[in-house]
Design brief:
By secondary structure, this protein is of the alpha+beta class. The protein has helices spanning 8-21, 32-51, 56-77, 85-93, 98-101, 106-114, 120-135, 146-153, 158-174, 176-199, 211-226, 234-242, 248-252; strands at 81-83, 139-141, 264-268, 287-293, 296-302, 304-311, 318-327, 330-335, 339-344, 350-356, 364-372, 377-388. Helix 3 packs parallel to helix 7 (120-135), helix 6 packs across helix 9 and helix 10 (176-199) packs across helix 11.
């Protein structure tokens, strides 16, 4: 590769790592083969720009165009769009994010930093596409999926990957004892998590257990303690801002209760008893276990509680929230501590509503706060969300 002083074997390894790391699953409006064609075309463009004879400024401008063109196209095709740091964190570190699913690509970003002195021209060319492409992920839109946009600048991470792999190989040859020590540290961590499972009685003490179960339990313990490493630092930011458990990020980050194709959504509390119950990741403090109520299932709210509501931005209208509940006293509802409604509870299940202006709905995770007067208890059956025309635009 022009300007990059690493062995061909390292470049081939970096190319293989890049190809195996990119998400090629189908997206809304784009098939898996379509993503592969986009990636192949972008790869060809990168190789031509890196080895091209054209003036460097012209190649630099072309690289910038590769990075920004997908976001510009998405905005032209979009019926709505939002700009938020949450959009960037979700696209990179959400459950379907680029770095969450392919942590090796961290080497591409970090390698470009280390490459700036060795090959400044190649580094500038790669960053000309990577930086605007990454910043473009701040924009969320229905015009073009974020994964499609990432495919156009992902090949420009190849120099960083090759440089980082080369440095890692040289370090392993120079300091093999440190590599062995790091591997030993991981084994100690694995054993500590394994022993913690026995302490918490997550494993049977007198029967065999599958490796998959042990691994799943260990991942859960690690996620609850420090967050999923592949989602750092997004899950730390999420937990600090919303005062939520670290592991909730994995289930909430790229989930949307209302998207462009849906005008209503319903959250049934307690109806699903499985470990994959859709309401469980949304619940924070204050909610009890599922219990029967009338003809179905509900959950009790003791005093105060909060729910996470991952939503698209509210620019397309207001949001009406209907909560079906029963109890005694007054129940207060508030979204993001801006829109509040207070209603009296009755002994039978009835609907309480809160209308929220579109400007008060965040693009991403919102927090619904519930409070029963004087520390009382409410029994909640379901929550329904509905997009409605904005009152500010009515004539």
């Amino acid at each position: 590769m022009i300007g990059l002083s690493v062995e061909r074997s390292v470049v081939r390894l970096a190319a293989a790592a890049l190809l195996l790391s990119i998400p090629l699953g189908a997206t809304p409006g784009t098939s898996g083969s379509g993503l592969l064609l986009i990636f192949a075309a972008s790869s060809a463009a990168f190789l031509w720009l890196a080895a091209g004879r054209a003036p460097f400024r012209l190649r630099l401008a072309a690289a910038v165009l590769v990075g920004v063109a997908p976001t510009g196209l998405a905005l032209l095709r979009a019926s709505w769009w939002t700009v938020s740091l949450d959009n960037l964190l979700t696209a990179l570190f959400g459950a379907h994010g680029l770095l969450y699913g392919a942590p090796l690509l961290w080497c591409g970003f970090l390698g470009l930093i280390g490459l700036r002195h060795e090959a400044p021209g190649l580094t500038r060319l790669a960053l000309a596409a990577v930086l605007p492409g990454t910043l473009g992920l701040l924009v969320s839109t229905d015009g073009l999926d974020a994964r499609v946009r990432m495919m156009t600048w992902a090949p420009f991470l190849l120099p960083g990957l090759a440089h980082c792999f080369g440095k890692m190989r040289a370090f392993a040859a120079r300091r093999p004892e440190r590599v062995l020590a790091a591997g030993g540290g991981l084994l100690v961590l694995w054993n500590a998590l394994f022993m913690e499972q026995y302490r918490r009685r997550l494993l049977p003490s007198d029967d065999t257990v599958s490796f998959a179960q042990v691994t799943s339990n260990s991942a859960g313990l690690l996620s609850r303690a420090v967050g999923t490493p592949f989602a750092w630092p997004a899950n730390w930011i999420f937990a600090k801002r919303l005062e939520a458990p670290l592991e909730r990020w994995d289930a909430i980050a790229d989930r949307r209760l209302l998207d462009a194709a849906a005008a209503t959504a319903t959250i049934e509390l307690g109806d699903d008893a499985s470990i994959f119950a859709p309401d469980v990741p949304l619940l924070l403090e204050g909610f009890g276990d599922r219990r029967t109520c009338e003809q179905g299932w509900c959950r009790d709210l003791d005093g105060r509680g909060r729910l996470l509501l991952p939503l698209e931005g509210g620019a397309r209208g207001d949001l009406t929230l209907r909560l079906r509940a029963r109890g005694q006293g007054a129940l207060s509802l508030s979204l993001n501590e801006t829109s509040t409604s207070v209603a009296e509870l009755s002994g039978a299940l009835s609907d309480l509503s809160l209308r929220i202006p579109g400007r008060s709905v965040r693009a991403g995770v919102n927090v619904l706060s519930l409070s029963v007067a004087e520390g009382g208890r409410a029994t909640i059956d379901r929550i329904t969300l509905e997009r409605v025309p904005s009152t500010s635009s009515a004539r």
